[in-house]
Amino acid sequence: MPSEQKLGSAIVDTVFANMVSSQNESSLLSSEGDSQRTQYPYVTGTSVIGIKYKDGILMAADMGGSYGSTIRYKSVERLKQVGKHSLIGASGEISDFQEILRYLDELILHDSMWDDGNSLGPKEVHNYLTRVLYNRRNKFDPLWNSLVLGGVKNGQKYLGSVSMIGVHFEDDHVATGFGNHLARPILREEWREDLTFEEGVKLLEKCMRNLLYRDRSAVNKLQIAKITEEGLTISQPYSLKTFWNFAAFKNPTVGAEGSW
Amino acid sequence: MDRDATADVNAPHSMGTTIIGVTYNGGVILGADSRTSTGLYVANRASDKITQLTDNVYICRSGSAADSQIVSDYVRYFLHQHTIQLGQPATVKVAANLVRLLSYNNKNMLQTGIIVGGWDKYEGGKIYGIPLGGTILEQPFAIGGSGSSYLYGFFDQAWKEGMTKDEAEQLVVKAVSLAIARDGASGGVVRTVTINSEGVTRNFYPGDTLPLWHDEVEAHDSLLDILNASNPEPMST
Hints:
The complex is a heterodimer.
Chain A: H1 10-20, E1 43-45, E2 48-53, E3 56-62, E4 65-67, E5 70-73, E6 79-82, E7 86-93, H2 94-113, H3 122-138, E8 145-153, E9 156-162, E10 168-170, E11 173-175, H4 178-182, H5 184-190, H6 197-214, E12 222-228, E13 232-234, H7 247-250
Antiparallel strand pairs in A: 1-4, 1-7, 2-3, 2-11, 3-12, 4-5, 6-7, 7-8, 8-9, 9-10, 12-13
Chain B: E1 19-24, E2 27-32, E3 36-38, E4 41-44, E5 50-52, E6 57-63, H1 65-86, H2 92-105, E7 112-120, E8 124-130, E9 137-139, E10 141-144, H3 152-158, H4 165-182, E11 190-196, E12 199-205, H5 223-230
Antiparallel strand pairs in B: 1-2, 1-10, 2-11, 3-4, 5-6, 6-7, 7-8, 8-9, 11-12
Helix pairs in contact in B: 1-2
């Protein structure tokens, strides 16, 4: 685990490390018994979807941060750049995602300090995340996230996912949470190797609109990110139109009064 | 607090308080109610939930009084040392991140939601929300505490970017007052703290200066005053 010693003076560091530490070694502090330390998520993000397309990877996620059943935050950025070649999308507990971004920052920093002309690619970052998440799971203290990791390095496209218990996949299209149930069936039917950028965006939007209709924690404000050999762009936040103008919606009980 | 593993993860623990932090063009305004309850009893009806960390950074505390006090004490201690080392006032961002570190790394033990607000010369007025779990989010305005449930709709409608100091102050006072009207765990007076380049101003709004909402009636000294008003006695002197 990367150290927390970034504050300056040694005295402050020692005091801070003791106070800030999440390791309940002292018997004075651990009244609950350290064998059960799974936490609960508080502020959570919902699905992330990722697909490979002709030139690279496309990823989509909405900007919602739910607090139980309340949609508390509507401008949470869940897609972030990692180094030169990768893009990460996160669902689950936002504070744990923010901590993962700090770990990744340190990882990329140390990698670049070697100054050897090499840089970590998406496959390596995905593997790093898998190890971190799996080891935390083994200590019954998980980082409560499901992550999508995608990127392009030396012409090779890579797209993978990893869950809070360390289960990881690599595929042409991946999703987290509700996205697995609602988006992947659409992608299984309509995904192709040679999707253009426009087709890819339209496909992702079809999935996101479906999630908006059917996922209670979805919000109608999303970002789509694209990563290619050339670089990464994350779109500005925008909203999708939704469609309610169906005869069956206007008169749902016309054939059976009293039903819904 | 009982952390039963079978607790419903979709029902976060609500906190007794209403706290608000709002940015305006020039600074920030922090607001809070003044009720501290232990169960159904009001332990303190005039508490001050807006706590100073440095000359230019204050926080609003909600949730467990003990947890929020200890977090603020540690952060004040660290910020004091940091200011000495830095040679100039700490930034709001640093203060907020120190709160985050404590909240995040002790998330299993702490139950406190904090709003950090202040002014520094680099970024101007800033508000950071740090809810349960230790997520840190910079926001144009933040609400927290059990009373905040009643304010999401209100702020969706009433919040505007670039308000003046007076508009922002009125908004905060109105909002805390509305929350107090409906949340049993919020009450007492409304306190506000305004922080900008010129410094810090504290304001105090006792219950009788606040507007009346639906189904609330005017306060009187006694029924007798009401009865006498409808049948006025001849002037005595």
